[in-house]
Structure formats: structure tokens, C-alpha cells
């Protein structure tokens, strides 16, 4: 291979990695832009807490239902058209979510938003698996780190715009403009192909894919528990003022973001099996610290350990999904992601039910057991 061909190949690989990172950044921006709109939607439409919970369940449900279709479409038509169409759909529906006052229209918009996010999530993860495999290097943690960065930037930007008096529609249009600019930059290097074709549209996970999905369920569930219950625990059990109870999730999210941005080097040095084994133990220890020691500072330290431990487990699991041969990737990747989303949806609900029957501390202790299980099964992912 001559120098010109080598340079062209290296340039193409750089473009593919950059486009993948931008896709993850876009997903984080759009998902987090929705979060500051939730209380405004609740007030504008006049929803109570129970109705809002059902509405948000529609968002996750729409994502899960759409993912198998995303895998099918990506396998047949490539990652580029699915990522572009899903992103444009999200940009179209976000302004509607900021203005709609008709409840049936809101329900349809939320389900459509969830379905579009599920399509984007699935397609960008399929691209990430292909790009990482072609490179021969650990890249997944960095990709997922950009999603976390997008989440921080999107939530921060939307909150800032709304706090200085911007109308919700104008604020969302500003976010849409940024996202479309990023998509314009990424689009040329998005992959025009997907995973290999084959397999049914829907398939029950089996073998190694089922195990990977179970582990993904547990880690996503832990993220959901941190999002929904960390502040509640700090207020009810550690006496923290509700106005700053969000520090719990902030410490978790910050540690996870740092862990993912540095994770590719860690995975390259330690290997995926050790990252899962040590990460699971770190996260379990963090949860134990948050429960065992009085005082909210100890809980914040514990939540940071949970974030650091969980940060690189899911990226390693996605690498393993791309490496396995038990099921076609066009089916396996959506299945694993769907199980992860189910963890986010069901985990916090289960914690609430167990807490109602016993106590929140007992319920959260169950998460420790699950995280230890993740660590103990780490060797099983080796192919």
C-alpha cells in the first residue's frame, strides 16, 4: 500500500470516529434538552405526578419498541440514513414538546420522541461497534463519554436559556440549531453500511447475548436508581436540604463522565474482563459506603464510586456484543440496548416497591447484590 492510500485510509478512519463521537454528543444533547422541559410540560398541561409518570413511561416504551426496527433498517440501509432521519425527527418533535397543550397530542409527541431516540441510540451504537472493530482499538468508552458530555451541556444550556427568560420554544429552537449544525458536520462520514444482514426482526436473546443483556439491565438500572432515588435518600436519611439534594446524582454523573472519557486507555491496559470485575466491585462498594456511613458527604463519595465503577462496564458490554457470533449483530445489539432501557424503566419502580414494603436502605442494598453479580460474571463475557 502506497503512502497516499495509507493517508486516505487513516483520514477515513478519523472521519468515522469523529462522526461517531458527534452522534453520541447529539444524542446526549437532545435527551438532556428534554429534562428541563418536563416540569414546564407538567404545569402547562396540568398533569399530576401519577399522570406524568405514565407519560414518561411512554417515552421509554417508545424507545424499546423502535429499537428492533432500527437494527433492521441499519442492517439493510446503513447507519447514515437511520442516524440522520432519527436526529431530524427528534429536532422536529422537540419544539412541539415545548409548546403543546393538548394532552393526546402531548402523548403522541412523547412516544414519537422516545421512538426516535431509540432509533438514534441503536443506530449510533451499531456504528460504534463497527468503527471500533475496524480500528482494532478500544473506543467505546470515549464514544459513551461524549453522550455524557452532551447530557451535561444540553441540560446546562437549556436551563441557562430558560432561567434568563427565553421562551421554551425559542430555547428548544436554539438547541435544534446546534444539533443540526453538528449533524451537518458528522453526516458525510457516517457509515453507509450497517451490520451483516440476517436473522429475524425480533428475537429472544439467548446464550452470551442474554447474559450481556442481563448485565446491561443491571448497570442501566443502577443509573436509573441514582437518578430517581439518590436525592430522596439524601433528604430522608441524611438530612440534606432538598434544594441541593441533586448533588447526589451530580457526583455520580461527574464521576461516570470522567471515567468514560479516560476509559479507552483503562480498557486497553486492563482488558474488558478486569474492567467489568473491578468496576462492579467499585460500584458495589460505593453503594455500601453511601448506606453504611452517616452524613451526606460520605454518601456523595459513595455515589461517585458508583459512577466510576459503572462508567466503563456498558461500553465493554457493547464491545462484547459486537464480538459474539451467537446472534446477528442487527438483532443482538438492539436486544441488549432494549434490556438496558428496561432496567432504567423498571429498576426505580422495583426499588420503590421494595422500599414501601421494608425501607429504602434495604431496597438499595439489593443493588449491591446485583453489582457483585456483575463482577462475578465478568469472565463469562470472554469469547
Low-confidence blocks of residues: none
Q: How large is the share of residues in beta strands?
A: under 5%
CATH class of the largest domain: Mainly Alpha
Quaternary state reads: single chain
Q: What is the second-level CATH architecture of the largest domain?
A: Up-down Bundle
The rounded distance between the terminal residues' Cα atoms is 32 Å
Number of domains: 2
Say what the CATH topology of the largest domain is: Growth Hormone, Chain: A
Helix percent reads: over 70%
Q: What Rg is obtained from the alpha carbons, in whole angstroms?
A: 20 Å
Structural class estimated from helices and strands: mainly alpha
> What is the overall shape?
globular
Average pLDDT over all residues: 88
SS elements, strand count: 0
Describe the overall structure.
The chain has helices spanning 3-34, 38-45, 49-77, 79-97, 103-135, 140-163, 168-186, 208-238, 247-261, 263-270, 272-292, 296-310, 313-323, 329-357, 360-376. It has 383 residues and is an all-alpha fold. It folds into two domains: 3-189, MFS general substrate transporter like domains (Growth Hormone, Chain: A, Up-down Bundle), CATH 1.20.1250.20; 208-381, Growth Hormone, Chain: A (Up-down Bundle), CATH 1.20.1250.20. The two termini are 32 Å apart.
List the helices and strands and how they pair.
Layout: H1 3-34, H2 38-45, H3 49-77, H4 79-97, H5 103-135, H6 140-163, H7 168-186, H8 208-238, H9 247-261, H10 263-270, H11 272-292, H12 296-310, H13 313-323, H14 329-357, H15 360-376
